[in-house]
């Protein structure tokens, strides 16, 4: 069996200067790149997810409520939807797009260009263990890791390589990981309360 790294939504709009920036996002991008360079044999496979909005309806709010609706972000064809330049993508074998026409938080809701979903891709590559990193710990990383565990993958979140939005939602995410049997390593980047 094999292991995989899932890089969640390390995109310009979720990093400093983006329309829905998370403090520490650029540092997470650079940290993932350093780890991939330092430990090239650690993972058999590396995949990534992207928020990839065309017209996600109520997911974009004006004004946003920051619970169910958000400022416009990661719109297909914009610089904000691209991977952050600090993220080395040379090892990424597949990209799973999510949220074209509706809210989507988990990478397991996404699909590759050929339509294959993340769970099927991982199984086709004999993956049984996944490590999850990216942005944001308390939203898309949370949803992706919980879905990975539900799909039967042994799941670890490398918290040092995630950035969280807020202390309250981070606490909810950490409790959810614990309840789902998701292993946690390290401490997430979090802005001051």
From TrEMBL:
It comes from the Bacteria. GO terms for biological process: pyridine nucleotide biosynthetic process. Pathway: Cofactor biosynthesis; nicotinate biosynthesis; nicotinate from nicotinamide: step 1/1. InterPro entries: Isochorismatase-like_dom (IPR000868), Isochorismatase-like_sf (IPR036380), Isochorismatase_Nicotinamidase (IPR052347). Residues 4-183 form the Isochorismatase-like domain. Its EC number is 3.5.1.19. This is nicotinamidase. It comes from Micromonospora chaiyaphumensis.
């Amino acid at each position: 069996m094999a292991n995989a790294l899932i890089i969640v939504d390390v995109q310009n709009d979720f990093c400093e200067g983006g329309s829905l920036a998370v403090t520490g996002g650029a540092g997470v991008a650079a940290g993932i790149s350093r780890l991939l360079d330092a430990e090239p044999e650690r993972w058999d496979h590396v995949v990534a997810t992207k928020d990839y909005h065309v017209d996600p309806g109520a997911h974009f709010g004006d004004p946003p409520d920051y619970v169910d609706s958000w400022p416009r972000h990661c719109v297909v064809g914009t610089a904000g939807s691209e991977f952050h330049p600090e993220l080395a993508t040379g090892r990424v074998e597949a990209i799973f797009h999510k949220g074209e026409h509706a809210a989507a938080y988990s990478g397991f809701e996404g699909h590759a260009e050929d339509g294959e979903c993340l769970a099927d891709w991982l199984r086709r590559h004999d993956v049984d263990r996944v490590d999850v990193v990216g942005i944001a710990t308390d939203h898309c990383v949370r949803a992706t890791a919980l879905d990975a565990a539900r799909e039967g993958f042994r799941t670890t979140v490398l918290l040092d390589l995630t950035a969280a939005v807020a202390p309250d939602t981070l606490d909810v995410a950490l409790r959810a990981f614990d309840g789902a049997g998701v292993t946690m390593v390290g401490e997430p980047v979090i802005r001051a309360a």
